[in-house]
Amino acid sequence: MQLFVYGTLCDPEIRDLVMGRRHGQVYPATLRGYIAVQIIGAKYPVLQKKSSGRVGGLLLSGFDFVTLTRISHYESVEYRVVHLQPIVFCHGPVEALLFLARRTVASSQRPWRLKEWQYRHKIRELPQIDSWMARWRPGNPIDSRGLHFACRQIDLPREIYLGQVYN
Predict the structure, then answer these.
(1) The whole model's pTM is what?
(2) Which residues contact 140 (CB under 8 A, 6 or more apart)?
(3) Nearest CA-CA partner of 18 in 56, 74, 82
């Protein structure tokens, strides 16, 4: 399973809190046709379509469906998981999952940058993220909303996305 991340999950400390240090391989990646902008009233990004845009991020691979539900919990109901266009990284296009904001999320035109977020907000956000992730429980149906459909779209083996989440 592969996931493209472009926001706070590009920070290794945040990835460890969210994924429980189960993020397997991490590769630099670029998504074309989008830009990352800040959500109005929040400190994290969303993607906006822009034909000439490029978003730098990471391609995460080698994790399981349970870890994907942890990520889904972190992303909350503001985001949905999709199987989007190929992600380009050092070896060319690959297929990956991606969390996109729902249409109800209001975005600004202000560019979002990881370095700026790390400098201005990360230290204050860490305790909140840790507290939020402590609420995650395996099998929570809210965490897996839409995940099964996205996983079926990329033909993942059935045991990966049914696994221990619902047992």
Answers:
(1) 0.82
(2) 69, 73
(3) 74
